[in-house]
Automatic annotation (TrEMBL):
Signal peptide: none annotated. The lineage of its organism: Bacteria, Bacillati, Actinomycetota, Actinomycetes, Kitasatosporales. InterPro entries: Pro_racemase_fam. Transmembrane segments: none annotated. Belongs to the proline racemase family. This is Proline racemase family protein. SUPFAM superfamilies: Diaminopimelate epimerase-like. Residues 40-59 are annotated as: Disordered. It comes from Streptomyces zaomyceticus. Pfam families: Pro_racemase (PF05544).
Amino acid sequence: MSTTPHTVRTTDYHTAGEPFRIVDEDLPPIPGDTVAERRATALGPGGSGTDPRPGPLDDLRRLLSREPRGHAGMYGGFVVPPDDDGAHFGVLFWHKDGYSTACGHGTMALGAWAVDTGRVPAPDDGDVSVRIDVPSGRVTAAVHRADGRTTGVTFRNVPTRIVARDVKVTTTLGTVDVDLAHSGALYVSVAAREFGLDVSLPSLPELVRVGREIRAALPAHDVYGVILYEELPDTPEGLRQRNVTVFADGQIDRSPCGSGTSARLALLGDDGRLAVGDTLRHESVVGTVFTGRLLAEGITEVGGTTFRTGTHAFVLDPHDELGAGFLL
């Protein structure tokens, strides 16, 4: 771990309950002309999104995502230069297993952070757009302000495309048909009831198990996350669903999943259940809410709240026998 900075400073947010740890200094060099190229650098030769090669940057990711400084549910981003001057900055998204191509809840947290820290000037009242280059493209976070504080963020995602419908997958709980949509990353959608489950805290162990089995059963598709959803009674504003998204190697999204909400919106539009301009109230397994809106040509908007939880100066003592830490 000698290549890891002695002190690493972070600013932490949560978006609808899902953590996001922001690092915009103390970073090792990350070669590349674009965010996508820098992600390839982070993965290393022969590495993948959930199995990156060792290196200084990955030492830092492991340090921040593992106990005792993190935990198996930690998520974060390394702030890097944008692809060009059309964006305010870029970001490499990371989690306990590696680096993702998209992260809606992280985009919302980054928008709030950019405004809260003054990196992007904003009015006391009104909205301001924060443009962010991510590995899957350019996204925009509209930061909502009132009385001098950030009250919420709505992000506009890259276009979502439907990849496949009714793909048969066999799990230990039975064979089901699943749908695939790419919304910056590839998500599988399937109703939890197909496995005799609901989306609740007591069902989490089984939901995680079947989510991992579905991802493993589709190796050719490079699935990032599996969305297990439950239909809820409609609201006066429109459709309502609850979901848990199982991503990477069994990680649980505490939020309703930002990019995953985009995938759900596109599929519901394709089913004829949502029209352009319609909204989805998307709830998480912990009861937090994103509001998703379907726009034209595969564009979606997803909004919610995000709050700063702390600032940190993490230290790695060279005599610490645990080094970068451990995962449970």
